[in-house]
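Dear colleagues,

As part of the handover before I leave the project, I'm documenting each prediction I ran so the next person doesn't have to rerun anything. This entry is a single chain, and its sequence is reproduced below.
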Amino acid sequence: MSDNKPKYIDGVGWRYETEHSMERRMKDHDYQSRCIYMITMNVEGRQPLLGALKWNAADGSDARIETTPLGAEVERCWMSISTYYPEARPLKVQIMPDHIHGILFVKRETTAHLGQIVNGFKIGCNRAFRRLREGNGAVEFLEAVPHDTKQETGPEAKHPKHPKQGMLFETGYQDSVLTGKGQLENMLRYVADNPRRLAIKRIMPDLFKVVSSLTVGDITYAAIGNRWLLDRPVRMQARCHNNTSPHNLQLIERQKEYFLKRGEKGGVVVSPCISAGEKEIARAALDAGQPLIVILENGFAPLYKPPGKYFEACAKGLLLMLAPWPYHMDRRTITRSQCLALNSMAEAISNEPWTQELEATLSR
């Protein structure tokens, strides 16, 4: 249990000292240097105070967020960051009902740490939060909050208890450091696509619901995705050696060709995606619009949603993700014993396990 004690700050209110989670920060990165960040912050208690999701199209392609007055103030505060921190240029912000995604470009080395910039933004949002709530009266303000977001909106969720009363966002934030070529364009698309992705989750809740106890054989998994893929008549274990010899690279290409041909006839690839070859085969299946069952070392957070191509495959009913072990936030290197266990699980789920005979046939 934390010994962190709340303290009262004039003009801000009661708050805890920030306890940073180093697992969420990039090790050895200088957070005062020139860099682009994607930052995510959640509303305290995940209350849907910032807006309502709206869409008309059956596939959610026209989804948008209609912001509340508070959501509009949060957007204004984000886009005003450079007024207080000239070295920081806000590139994009996407308001969601209960959280925000913002992209921030620190143009040059700054005396302010990224955490100080984010904290300054939060202080401005807290002031707007209190001003709107007190100006309209607590009851009227809360009644103005949209109730069609399918979030918990009961009295306990609406009224954060002391000492966080008056604080709009949860303590801390998550940041992604953009360093690679093309990452900014990809992140801008991802941020702008969040309303559509949320609409898809609302349209097809069964495919995006985390199931905590799905038993397959004698193992219980957490699961998300199309559980009926387990009933497909052809379930093929993908298993590749983790080396880069010419012979093995050729074998991986033949394995990929083999699985894609079987996938055209309804076969499902089953893989823990441990080796580079297994990951390549999984990507090929997704690109071809074929079904995939993935077994993961880590479990799922309560509000987990599949990333990237996995999300689109999940929306089409072409993905099942299984996790035999509990969720954890820390970064861990998968152990050899875990690799062997995951491969054994993939074999047990498959009715066409990978065999030395099949490998020998493809190697010829």
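Residues 7-202 form a domain with the Alpha-Beta Plaits fold (CATH 3.30.70.1290). The first strand starts at residue 7 and ends at 9.

All the best with the project,
I.
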